[in-house]
Amino acid sequence: MQVLVGLPYCAGGMDTSKHHQLAQLRKCLYNRAQLLWPVCGELKAGGLTLDFIPNSRFTHYSSASSIMMWRLITANVIFSVINTVSAHGWIDKWIIGDRNYTGFNPTIAPWVPDQSTIAWPAWNNDTGPVYSNRLNTSDIICSINATNAQLYATSVAAGSTINLHWTVWPDSHHGPIFSYLAACDGDCAAVDKYQLKWFKIAELGQILHGKGNGSVGVWASDQLRETEGAWSVTVPSAIKAGNYVLRNEIVALHSAYDVGAAQFYPQCANIKITGNGTVVPSGVLGTSLYNQNDPGVHYNIYNDELKPSYPMPGPPCCEYYQIALFCMSIANLELVTD
Predict the structure, then answer these.
(1) What are the structural domains of the chain?
(2) Residues 6 or more apart from 231 whose CB is under 8 A from it?
(3) pTM above 0.70, yes or no
(4) Percent of the chain with pLDDT over 70
(5) CA distance 253 to 129
(6) How confident is the model at residue 136, as a pLDDT?
């Protein structure tokens, strides 16, 4: 049976007993996050599985697990960035819990292949990127020829913040920054990276448009430089305890006006998440995260002043899952997953 709020029509009949609950839910979503979506849902075993239909500000992600995921298209959070230099970077420090972990340094990898780190070893010895004409190869997963890290960070509770530090980042390399998780379903030191399914937990793209005439706007990577390489990501509090690979990635779009020329810089590390969460969002295989022709991958940053918003590449972000879960509890509705 289908139920509906806010739309003139939805397939199937209307369960009038759910009218009040759905109205409560919609009001809560609006008050908490200005989510104006009409809502459709399917009754399952006495519970209600909801599907959110986006308005112009949000993108909807649907999956077999009936988990709700969203992302803001218009970023309104400003983070920060570092002094200008002409070299690519990598994460040289992962700060998890009360411990600092040294990242894997690819520039010394030929001489020091085992660096005893939680970060996945990668073999871009020149710190170069994965170009967008190679997005469907294994290099996009955790960088070029990456192999599993054999160590884990200390356990981190769901809902906690993990801090990262990137080495110096070129001021010409403008673009978004993404963070992902993938459940290992066992030991991350032995998991097949081709089978990891990634779900996005944070993203920041373009903050200000350019002024025209080839002027570039302000991007997440620019804010990274202003914080001297510092970045942070919060583990969603609903995430189920277990072993995960955390993936942080900068996308440089300075040459993305050519198909296949966008530059991706993924970095990975093994973490253990604790807590009482029950959710593992459906993810996407690394080799299917992006395509070189995606609007946010093949993109000209030098004449984007007339475009309404930058189209974030990759799957939608699940940052609003917790808000919806809270609102469903207020409305006495149950989230049903398959």
Answers:
(1) 2-68 (no CATH), 91-316 (2.70.50.70)
(2) 79, 163, 164, 165, 166, 177, 224, 248
(3) yes
(4) 68
(5) 12
(6) 96
